[in-house]
Amino acid sequence: MEKHRNFLTLLAVVFIGGLLLSFVTVQDKKKGEAWDVPEKYQKMENPSKDDASLMKVGKILYIKHCRSCHGNKGEGDGPKAASLETAIESFTSDKFQGQSDGVIYYQSIIGRDEMPNYESKIPEEEDRWALVNYLRSMK
After folding, report:
1. What are the CB-based long-range contacts (under 8 Å, 24+) for 18-27?
2. What pLDDT sits at residue 86?
3. Over the stretch 19-28, which tens digit does the pLDDT of each residue have?
4. How large is the C-alpha radius of gyration of the chain?
5. Which CATH class is domain 2-136?
6. In sequence order, which residues have a C-beta less than 8 Å from that of residue 54 and are 6 or more positions away?
7. 10 φ, ψ to 5°?
8. Would you give the end-to-end CA distance of the chain in angstroms?
9. pLDDT for the residue numbered 106
10. CA 95 distance to own-chain centroid
11. Cα–Cα distance between 120 and 61 in angstroms, integer?
């Protein structure tokens, strides 16, 4: 009987603790500073802008390298996003989509701070642009 009572007490404590934790809000993440994108990238032209055949390649690269932080739909809600100090901007936002392809290339491939560099992980230029094109499709 004593074992049963101890178990019920433990169960109640765990339940109440979980209930209380569900009301705790996640601390706001800091907003990243504006990107300082070199002019070379700002003026870069996308050589495969209208190549729909690369969309599958871009999606595969996104799933492999980006989804864990940026989430399935590019909303910045992937499983690793919670561990980052900086908030992730949505790829669906007007702000993101309003950038030039070269700026998106720079942000996605060159990176900075918590956004890693992918030059060695995505070495082929065509694949890099396929990723940019896929990010463009997340409107």
Report:
1. 26/82
2. 92
3. 555 554 445 6
4. 21
5. mainly alpha
6. 48, 126, 129, 130, 133
7. -60, -45
8. 60
9. 98
10. 15
11. 13
Altogether, the residues listed in the chain come to a count of: 139
**What are the tokens at 1?**
């009987």
pLDDT at 7 over 70: no
pLDDT at 25: 41
Q: Which amino acid is at 77?
A: D
Give the model confidence (pLDDT) of 107-139 as tens digits.
Answer: 999 999 999 999 999 999 999 999 999 999 998
Contacts of 123 (CB under 8 A, 6+ apart): none
Listing DSSP states for the chain in one string gives -HHHHHHHHHHHHHHHHHHHHTTPPPPPPBPPPPP---HHHHT---TTTT-GGGHHHHHHHHHHHTHHHH-TTSSS-STTGGG-SBPPPPTTSHHHHTS-HHHHHIIIII-BTTB---TTTS--HHHHHHHHHHHHT--
